[in-house]
Amino acid sequence: MLEDKQxxxxxxxxxxxxxxxKLGYTKFAKMLAEGIERMMPPDxxxxxxxxxxxxxxxxxLNFVKFYVQQIAEENRPxxxxxxxxxxxxxxxxxxxxxxELNLILGKSPGFSGQLLSSLADLAETVSRPTPYAVVGNxxxxxxxxxxxxxxxxxxxxxxxxxxxxxxxxxxVILIDDIDRLTAEExxxxxxxxxxxADFPNVVYLLAFDxxxxxxxxxxxxxxxxxxxxxxxxxxxxxxPTPDKNALRAMLYEQLNVILSQDTxxxxxxxxxxxxxxxxxxxxxxANPRHIVRLANxxxxxxxxxxxxxxxxxxxxxxxxxxxxxxxxxxxxxxADEFTGHSVRVxxxxxxxxFRNFHESWMKGIQExxxxxxxxxxxxxFPRFQSAWDNTNYPDEWERRxxxxxxxxxxxxxxxxxxxxxxxxxxSLSEVRAVLSVASDHDAFNSNLLNLAVQKRPDGxxxxxxxxxxxxxxxEEFKLESISTVIQVLFxxxxxxxxxxxxSHDIFGLRNYMRISRLARYLLRRLDEKQRYAxxxxxxxxxHSVATxxxxxxxxxxxxxxxxxxxxxxxxxxxxxxxLSELETIALNKIREVASEGKLEHAPRLGMILAYWxxxxxxxxxxxxxxxxxxKDSLASLIEESFLEGYRQSISDKVGEVTYQLDPSLHEILDxxxxxxxxxxxxxxxxWTGEKKHAVExxxxxxxxxxRAKA
Length: 710
Known about the structure:
The chain is mainly α.
């Protein structure tokens, strides 16, 4: 039974059985049916039920029909259903109306042939000339049993009235979908109703949108449409407004079915969903038709993104797409104006410009929807809200939003508007697959390296996306897998430090940051002794010198070294004693790699050498002197010592990448022989553009020995 109801709603089909009523129309329909049974209008009666499009008028008529059919047979009226919309755009509606009436009455006992013939005469007489006049006259001829002599309208109507009075059966004529007709057809239909409204024992029950009918009548007649209706309709009723709680229950029933398909996405936060619903979505759900439109849309779009979006956010965004396409389109085309955690640049001036942008486009929203749209977007996009208040969120919120697959996350935003993951992105199912093998050293290792060679359309590798998503969910790693993950990171981390994954903007992450972040989040789930034991073993066994040194520097920053602000002691990953031991391991790892002739090819070489020089400057000079004797090795050293910068003015939308050589190179390239070889490499065309300028600038600066003499 529930499945049948869902099919009815999803198709937009009107309900027929009052048992299925969830909007409170049953009582109203029963009241109308009982009133029709009691009434014996001497001159006929026209009842109208007014309701907006999609408000359930057809369902209400079906319920009235149901209750009329429950009346005892001896008193049960004959029901004639006429839907003029079925004949819209064809022949004269007048003829179709009388055809339907004749067909029903002709099948009912007690109606004379004379009555049916008189109805045919009336149809021919009141039918207006149309492009289909020939066809219409033939239909009228067919309705009349014989072509008889012509009679005027008054005479024909008197015959019909007499025939209807002679029989005791009441006739109820239900007319629906009047407001779907063209303006001319609406006028024509009311002309017919006006002509037959005074037939005895006949009750007309009309259902339509009053505003639409009035507008059509005034357009075609040049008269007051409301006055015209009042002359025809003796008993007007407004369709009861659907109960909001009932509408909400109907929508939730549909959403539960749709969302039950998704077992992989984040769970729905009832508080967050409730806020989204009541500040925005509820406003757009005013009748059953709105539920049908939204539910049918979600049936198509949600399966394509399930598991990759936050369900609450997706329903809200799709609500805008269905009911406020202008707002949806602005959001879709302006990701930078909605995603992120706060107004990024420009101070008060930038904020004012940001607010002006949003206030400008919102003027195009219908006034009755404007406040709702603004409130809904404020819930969805904290950055949008920051245009009007002083709310700002730290960078860490981006991680939280990405983990929750929120639309305000810069990483997740495109999924909502492309109805699927962008090409090359890492799906949540892939993340879970990696998590499932995190305890398997070889499998986890293989997953990272495989994604490191898979390119996305933007040129970056898929491993950077995986590292981001793994760092979003450290609690999903099994505790016993943490040691394996840390070990793999220190083994192959340097192979993941790929230049194509470096974001060329001031907010971008590099893979070494992603690795460090993931390792820190995982280690914080363990106690200090476990952390140290895992770090010690992994660093001693690992081959990724840059990753190892970088992580030791992160640990030092927690103690306030390198001009950093220290953090509380109970928040530090390791004790000072254990940190000292890990620093020694990092230095020994540098020496080990240098002795193997591999250090000059290590990524982030400038960082490694700077760390080495802080403790053993003489060792660095000795190593550099040896490197300088080989042009290829020296070139590798220079390449790894470029520091990448980013230059962008406030008015620029896109900045440019800049380079400079690590100034500390002066301390290790202090011999005349080394400088000479660098000049030779420069003259050979080894570097061009910004890198060439960076080398030239480096060579123009005084050497360490010269600065000392000065």
